[in-house]
Write a structure and sequence with these properties.
heterodimer; A: alpha/beta; Nucleotidyltransferase, domain 5; five-stranded mixed beta sheet; 8 helices; 10 strands; 42% helix; B: alpha/beta; Rossmann fold; four-stranded parallel beta sheet; globular
């Protein structure tokens, strides 16, 4: 069997992620290159192309060398794709790549968060997403960081320094933002505000995990997987539930991988390789 | 020439179609009436009315699909209970807001109780306007249903003549049938192209092209469609590895364009559908032969070659077989049932159709919409999961 060269391109709401793999139909995969680039009010298709070209340069290949270029997320901005996979499927497959024994993932992106449970080949068995409200998303956290004048990359570390986190509304982003403005005027320290926000989001995310019946290792994927404060807050909420012996607590262990943000792109690339093999077998009859 | 038309030869004609789709003031119909003094513009609710009859009488048939997603319904809501679909409310809203004043009459085909009741309400609200209930036969025997139906057609024609339409001669009716056949052949060509190369013509674009026929005469619509076909041949398009699906259940209240685009963005090539079913309600041509009475030809076409859809009371096995045949003919890999919320005909047939698909191992999923649905995240999630499951695992999610 020849090794498949495939790419996954994942344009999200705030960043574009690209991963390039060589694999045997998605197995024995070797990550050749990866890139993450923020969109920052630029034309998404152009950012996609630039990010892809950078990754190709690192991997030493061009468009024509690929067996499959798979998009996920906003596929329309990847005009050069071979095919598209839905982000839920790609995050499941990506999570499996990051941790072979994982059977669940928590995808926390800029606009939505999603809990999902999958089998040993990455097929999604159940899933649940946050509702329309933005208070469970990265965009919300980004807004809060801006109000506080804190660079986004410092949010996680600051949150972990919190002494007495301030409780915020977990129901609605608008109310939560009002809470934050009040906290700032009351002189509450930024770490305590950020931790409060993290805990608020974490409560919603743990509910998602519980509702999909997640168990064992849960890989955190999406942009917020890089936010150490967020991951710590989820761990804290999980531990609290366990200590309170809540009947339906989510009995899981979180795994925040450094490549968690790439999970969608990785999953797309690997599913692309699987698809190449599948189509070849179909053609061979 | 704009940038988009320079890069996409089909952009200009599709932009024209989109403009008609978005025009809730029916300015095109107003212009037609100015150009045809004395001509009547006759609105028709879905699914099917015999358009050639109207054209032969010098009338412009205007398909009314409700208010879509651009209209706030306030007054229309007071006439229907909350468990009724949206198309009758938004149609009344349009009428009470004056947008349908351009119409000289309205036809209400016998599709379901709701449309029949809408016809009744319409009669009470606008007694001065021509209103007719088109009682399509459910007995498909030519001697029984056929005799009844030709009688219906003549009754409606007489009503229109009473409002100033010209009585149709047999030759004019045959000519109108020829124009309708010709238009529908081009629509069929577009459908064939979509099946062959779905990346060259997306379902959402084909939808707009067909929808332009709501306010255009058959001949003009055909010219637009031919222009589109020619442009599509020059279009540079890239084939994507998508899942080929058939969509069923959207024959009356139409899904918002955003919903069709959402299905496409989820990785689905819609290679067959029943959107705006009236335009392709008859399979094949209506008989044009001068030896056949054209009224009978219209009737025979409806009786013998009407599509197997929910508004026809035919055996469930026939409908199931027809759906499976459509799936096979389009080389589709799955079926998406997309029905308007509270659409009794679509939702009552759906379990039988699902069972037929299950027996053949054809994956399917179902969703509901309203013509004004604006949030598609849930549908995107569902369609994406379905598309991936079919593509990767060969079965529904």
């Amino acid at each position: 069997m020849s090794r498949h060269l495939t790419a996954g391109v994942d344009p999200g709401a705030s960043t574009v992620k690209v991963a390039i793999f060589r694999s045997n139909a998605g197995q024995d995969a070797e990550l050749l290159a990866s890139r993450v680039q923020r969109i920052r009010r630029r034309d998404v298709a152009q950012v996609v192309r630039a990010t892809f070209d950078e990754a190709c340069a690192e991997a030493g290949c061009t468009d024509r060398d690929f067996d499959y270029i798979a998009s996920t997320g906003d596929g329309d901005s990847v005009g050069f794709r071979t095919g598209h996979f839905y982000s839920m499927t790609t995050h499941a497959r990506g999570a499996l790549q990051l941790c072979k024994s994982a059977r669940a993932a928590l995808d926390i992106g800029a606009l939505h968060a999603r809990g999902l449970r999958m089998n040993d080949v990455g097929r999604v068995l159940s899933h649940r997403m946050t509702s329309q409200c933005a208070s469970g998303s990265g965009q919300f956290l980004e807004n809060i960081a801006r109000y506080l004048g804190v660079p986004l990359e410092d949010v996680g570390a600051l949150s972990r320094q919190a002494g007495t986190p301030e409780k915020v509304s977990s129901i609605c982003a608008v109310l939560a933002e009002t809470d934050v403005i009040n906290m700032v005027s009351r002189g509450i320290a930024a770490p305590d505000i950020l931790k409060g926000i993290h805990l608020s989001i974490a409560g919603r995310l743990v509910q998602l995990l519980r509702s999909v019946g997640a168990a064992g290792t849960v890989v955190v994927t999406g942009g917020l997987s890089r936010d150490e404060g967020m991951v710590a807050a989820i761990d804290e909420v999980l531990a609290e539930e366990k200590n309170k012996k809540k009947k339906q607590h989510a009995d899981v262990t979180l795994l925040a991988h450094a490549d968690g943000i790439l999970a969608g792109a990785m999953g797309a690339a690997l599913l692309g390789a699987y698809r190449v093999q599948q189509l070849a077998e179909r053609q061979a009859g | 020439m704009t940038d988009s038309t320079a890069s996409d030869p089909a952009a200009e004609v599709l932009a024209r179609c989109l403009a008609l789709y978005e025009d809730m003031s029916f300015s095109r119909v107003r212009r037609w009436k100015e150009a045809h003094p004395g001509g009547l513009a006759i609105g028709a609710l879905p699914i099917y009315v015999p358009r050639p009859l109207l054209e032969a009488m010098g009338c412009l048939p205007v398909s009314i699909f409700g208010g879509g997603d651009q209209l706030d319904v306030i007054r229309g809501d007071s006439y229907f209970q909350s468990y009724i679909c949206r198309i009758p409310r938004s149609t009344l809203e349009l009428a009470m807001g004056g947008q349908l004043d351009v119409l000289d009459g309205m036809l209400f085909p016998s599709i379901c109780d709701v449309i029949r009741n809408l016809g009744g309400i319409w009669n009470m609200l606008f007694p001065e306007r021509f209103t007719a209930y088109v009682d399509l036969p459910q007995n498909f025997d030519r001697d029984i249903g056929g005799r009844f139906y030709t009688g219906e057609l003549r009754r409606i024609a007489a009503g229109l003549v009473g409002r100033g339409a010209k009585p149709p001669s047999d030759e004019e009716l045959r000519a109108a049938i020829r124009r309708e056949n010709s238009r529908r052949r081009v629509l069929s060509e577009l459908s064939a192209l979509r099946r062959r190369e779905p990346w060259r013509l997306r379902a959402s674009e084909a939808y707009l092209a067909a929808r332009a026929g709501s306010v255009l005469e058959a001949q003009e619509h055909e010219a637009w469609l031919r222009e589109l076909l020619a442009a599509l041949e020059r279009r540079e398009a890239r084939a994507y590895d998508n899942v080929r699906v058939v969509v069923r259940g959207a024959f009356c209240e139409q899904p918002p364009l955003g919903l069709i685009r959402t299905l496409e963005a989820a990785g689905c090539d819609i290679v067959d559908d029943d959107f705006q079913l009236g335009l392709h309600f008859i399979e094949g041509d209506i008989e044009e032969d001068s030896s056949i009475d054209p009224w009978t030809a219209l009737s025979n076409a409806y009786l013998d070659r009407g599509v197997a859809t929910s508004s026809r009371y035919i055996g469930e096995a026939t409908k199931g077989d027809a759906l499976i045949e459509s799936v096979r003919a389009a080389a589709a890999e799955g079926v998406i049932f997309a029905a308007a919320s509270f659409c009794d005909p679509a939702l009552l047939d759906q379990p039988m159709l699902e069972a037929a698909l299950d027996r053949q191992g054809i994956p399917h999923t179902s969703l509901k919409y309203a013509e004004n649905s604006g949030q598609f995240q849930v549908i995107r999630e569902q369609a994406g999961a379905f598309s991936d499951a079919v593509k990767l695992w060969g079965s529904a999610a």
